[in-house]
Amino acid sequence: MTRKSSITASTVNAMVNAGQLRGWHDLLAAEPHVAGTHGDERVIEKLRATFESFGLETDVHEFWALLPRPSAAVLQIVSPEQRDLILKERVLDEDLYTQHPALDPGWNAFSGSGDVTGEVVYANYGRKEDFETLATLGVEVRGRIVIARYGGNYRGYKAKFAQKAGAAGLIIYTDPAESGYTRGLLYPEGGYANDTCIERGSLQTLPYIGDALTPGVEATRDAPRLKIDEVGLCAIPVQPIGYGAALEIMKRMTGRAVADHAETRGWQAGLPVPYRLTGGEALRVRLKVEQDREIRRSANVVGVLRGSEEPRRMVVIGCHHDAWGFGASDPLAGTIALVEAARALSRAARELGPPRRSIAFCAWGAEEYGIIGSSEWVEGNRDLLATDAAAYFNLDMASMGVDFGSSSGPSIRRAIASAAAEVPQARDPERTVLDAWMGRGGDATDPSLPAFGDLGGGSDHVAFWCHVGVASAGLSAGGSPGTSYHSIYDNLAWYRKVVGEDYESAMMITRMAAGSALRLATEELLPIEPWVCVSEFRRHLRDVSGRGAAAGLWNAPEAATEPAAAQDGLAPVADPLAELDRDAASTQRELLETVAAWRDRVAAGKVSADELNDLNERLLATDRAWVLPEGLPERPWFKNLLAAPDRDSGYASWMLPMLRRVVEDKDAAGLEAAVKAYTGVFRSLREIVEIPGA
Amino acid sequence: MTRKSSITASTVNAMVNAGQLRGWHDLLAAEPHVAGTHGDERVIEKLRATFESFGLETDVHEFWALLPRPSAAVLQIVSPEQRDLILKERVLDEDLYTQHPALDPGWNAFSGSGDVTGEVVYANYGRKEDFETLATLGVEVRGRIVIARYGGNYRGYKAKFAQKAGAAGLIIYTDPAESGYTRGLLYPEGGYANDTCIERGSLQTLPYIGDALTPGVEATRDAPRLKIDEVGLCAIPVQPIGYGAALEIMKRMTGRAVADHAETRGWQAGLPVPYRLTGGEALRVRLKVEQDREIRRSANVVGVLRGSEEPRRMVVIGCHHDAWGFGASDPLAGTIALVEAARALSRAARELGPPRRSIAFCAWGAEEYGIIGSSEWVEGNRDLLATDAAAYFNLDMASMGVDFGSSSGPSIRRAIASAAAEVPQARDPERTVLDAWMGRGGDATDPSLPAFGDLGGGSDHVAFWCHVGVASAGLSAGGSPGTSYHSIYDNLAWYRKVVGEDYESAMMITRMAAGSALRLATEELLPIEPWVCVSEFRRHLRDVSGRGAAAGLWNAPEAATEPAAAQDGLAPVADPLAELDRDAASTQRELLETVAAWRDRVAAGKVSADELNDLNERLLATDRAWVLPEGLPERPWFKNLLAAPDRDSGYASWMLPMLRRVVEDKDAAGLEAAVKAYTGVFRSLREIVEIPGA
């Protein structure tokens, strides 16, 4: 039998080092490194060398994905007077990074190419409901150039809905109410967007994530590929700008004011002009965007710390490495914690013995274009992950302040909270992270847990969580006054001015990642709590029930008359969901009792190695029980019945997505299939924990 | 016996005429008419002639009051560069009124005179709590020039608190978040403040209203007067400016950002710069203000429509006539309704017989300086009003839109609501005013009534309501998109563009004023409901109880255990107030039952003329029962125990002011006297309605 590891959280905590974190930051943020560029290649090589230096089993996992590059962009006011608008950030004497020649002007990857001129329409956030409001008010969008502000949804949906409404082009700007003088001091004096600051970013919105041309399969060099024209990428030109340029357009608009309609009163934001729905005939704007659509190579860098007793089973910690510029915050505020966790844990393993299970450290490529690297790796390792991945921890942009938080799959929440009880709070070491976190509010259902967010879309956890069903969590800390998101100001000068020089946030995140992973990698019985998924199911079922009643799909549930429902203190659900709720309630009880009994037996040393292996296999299977093999209707790549990205806005999550879709589409006919799918989950869960003869 | 009047609401409604209202507007808004100026004299003469032409008993009631005039003002940025800031509004080609030579630059009456230079401190709204926050954050105000935004309190308190904090001077500006691009289109395109628009206004904050030199007595030519230096008028220079000028100062400030402190995060408003607490050493501003402090003559114009059966008893309708410029909105949007109500009611009286009781139409002078004309008239007629005034209806700025509302003393609310049931809604004549009003929400205590506001300070009702105890109400309608408040843009061009050309709002207000007054002037038994005052007392007692608990004066009330308290569905009050609440509850029941019985007997014709007179006298006495002859502690001019202006902010009201003061000052020692005073009110109320032998 292999030597038992004696790694503890406190030994790892002591090994984490601010100077090292600063060093990784210097190493990785030295130059712009957009996916598919030479800077990207150099970062990949640095990561490979670093992981190898830790003694990890290191693999550079290459992929070939559709990674557009910009070649030209023009934005002009054509009339009433001609004026070119600036499409790049101000170069600053106070921040020499802003002078780097490899920095791109502002652009949105996957924009269509084109040269259009037209009148202007303001569409607020460019959400589905915003375009519906414009239609209600009789505002013509067709043939016009839409200007929309960042916020409210994923930018790809702004483009999707603008194109659907017939817009000729789209301009997206950062409103000062979101980041600018309305929020605080401006960069370089403070941390918020100055008038030239531009948020870059991808527009990819497809019914899957990862490489646009290889859904469901790994994007190897020779993988079968869709034709680009079949994929349904954005066709209209889209250009992001700063609020200085936006003001030049907005102040020349002469149409109806947003304040004149109750529906659009909230569309007024932070620019010093009355916002208007239309620009009027006199104002004409020209937008020209050119981008290639080439397949380019990038890579994930994966380093494995091999476990001693269950080496196939693994905990994965990941963060992407690609950026829109230097990426000191996005992603490197997470990547440096990933690297430092790898260093500390591999050193601890050398000194104290490796953990029971393997820990994989994954620096993902091309996240920014569409969560590509992680998705391709997951697609290439789907079967292994389905059977043997215990959890995935994502660290994208993780160290941005001292206020720790997590959005997480339900089954590993207690493991994360337990880790937080052993990590000192950044800049307040007398307290633990858990103390500070609980101080900001407890979980709605279980007051012994801190408040976790619902894990949806937006970063490298999506393939793990939504495609394969691996329990996943984002770990991050925020609260610093400012943002340089996707701008050329996202560099070390900004980070050290705004987040700080002390790397306290990054130390806390490193310890949280290492500590959470250690719990999953070292405890004999996996600390997975399948009943919490069911408890969360029931909470979200109440939300869906209410939404369905509001949408007229069913009658609002009456006050509880059944003793069972009244007993557990939960609000009733609508009649067509009531049986499902009872099924969930009994499943929840059975899971709780059974797994508690397992835990007692393991603690008492009454379980053989084979039995333990069987119980762990069952625990992993409980997370996968939520996976519907055929996937969700209309977007089968997403298979987790507990959570999916919000279909209509991107960043947020749809919980119980198959039921939620029924409600959103008012598709009463789809209800039966949805209920059946969830009933199947509960049957599976009960079967998984049922041990013949036990 | 005199001929019974057959005036009905519908006959009066039919007599109200939009063309007439427009004509009164043309007549009274023809030139600037600041109190004490030649324009003021001409308006007084026009009103006298108009009232006489209606056949009213007309009196020009002169008074001599302290009415300062401005002589000079300079506001300069001295360093880092020198720059004069503009202290008057932009003259507009679209609005020829703006060119009138008699218009004053921006000024605040009762400013100190002086010439000061210093650094700048931003104090948000300049409220008591804002200066406390600055002190907490260690921001030095002493010797500096404070810049504060309008809103949040009466401007006089901004000056009072700035002076108390040691400021050298005060600049008050209109923030675009209050009126400007944040709210809608700017004048002259729309109705909101452009960058030069300046809110003028008085700074008088004394423990009484009316002429500063003659508290408690009428300001006749020869009245005994206080010395100016004894009065405690504002000593520092104060200057109002537009947001364009404010931006010139704010954008040069270099100190700490308001966003950097949790306490001041809400201080950021609508200017396109990060707001800061301090200007820094480099920014120096000079403020020079010169004003005289002269006693000037002005006058009220009072026209009485004499009642037939109870001619001494009167209902008063009032609105001031003085303005800071043309005053098309403030006050004339109310004054024209006053004049038209006088015309319609006097014509109706000629044709159908005069009403039972007298109606006095009062156009007040010098309201803008400190509610002077109405206060001097009330002081001169105090005894008559105390015995014989049935109600006061105030129409200041009343016709500003179609959404009718009222802040009102409790006892006449049902009379106003009944009148609203007989008046067609402006621009929606299929509905009544009551329908539309109820549609915006009902009263918190009595769902059969629409929602009324609590009547506090701010206009000509104050002397009637707070000094003498006459049941009073403000009647007004708003909802038009914009404001030109106290600026040179408050003229007919602005009013007709923003509120409209149709005078629908003014017709509605005229009808509401005439209809409400008619109910009080014609019903045999006065429609005064004394139990509603007690019901409102109990509601406000709960508020005071909660505030006292929050301030630590007493323990928070426990959940009701007493059946009595639980029975009426009201929350319990803190122990030291519980006996008072029980007292109120029994008084409320007794009033309700007794007056209902009176009403039944009168309706059944079982009451003699003498008995009726006695009952009406008793009803009038119930309103006066709330008057404490010695007045409130520290400000004895205010005598109504039900309501007073907010001592620390001006416009708002303190309900149950003697109890509220105990809470605000945490003066537990004052509680006994306060409870005793209210106990006395309830004893009086019960005595008033107790008829020996009945």
Layout of secondary structure:
The structure is a homodimer of 694-residue chains.
Chain A: H1 9-15, H2 18-28, H3 38-53, E1 57-66, E2 70-79, E3 83-84, E4 108-109, E5 114-118, E6 120-122, H4 128-136, E7 145-149, H5 155-164, E8 169-173, E9 201-202, H6 228-231, E10 238-241, H7 243-250, E11 284-291, E12 295-305, E13 310-320, H8 332-352, E14 357-364, H9 367-370, H10 372-380, H11 382-388, E15 389-394, E16 403-408, H12 413-420, E17 424-425, E18 428-432, H13 433-439, H14 461-468, E19 472-478, H15 492-498, H16 504-522, H17 530-550, H18 563-567, H19 575-603, H20 609-624, E20 643-645, E21 653-655, H21 657-664, H22 671-689
Parallel strand pairs in A: 4-9, 6-7, 7-8, 8-10, 13-14, 13-15, 15-19
Antiparallel strand pairs in A: 1-12, 2-3, 2-11, 5-11, 12-14, 16-19, 17-18, 20-21
Helix pairs in contact in A: 1-8, 2-8, 8-16, 10-14, 12-16, 17-19, 17-21, 19-22, 20-22
Question: Overview of this structure, please?
Answer:
Two copies of one chain form a homodimer. With 694 residues, chain A is of the alpha/beta class. Chain A folds into three domains: 9-67 and 304-522, Zn peptidases (Aminopeptidase); 69-292, Glucose Oxidase, domain 1, CATH 3.50.30.30; 530-689, Transcription Elongation Factor S-II, Chain A (Up-down Bundle), CATH 1.20.930. Chain A is 36% helix and 17% strand. Chain A has 22 helices and 21 strands. Chain A has a seven-stranded mixed sheet, sandwiched between helices. In chain A, helix 17 (530-550) packs parallel to helix 21 and helix 20 packs antiparallel against helix 22. Chain A is globular, with a radius of gyration of 25 Å. The two termini of chain A are 27 Å apart. The A-B interface holds A 176, 181-186, 190, 192, 257, 259-260, 268, 270-274, 481 and B 176, 181-186, 190, 192, 257, 259-260, 268, 270-274, 481.
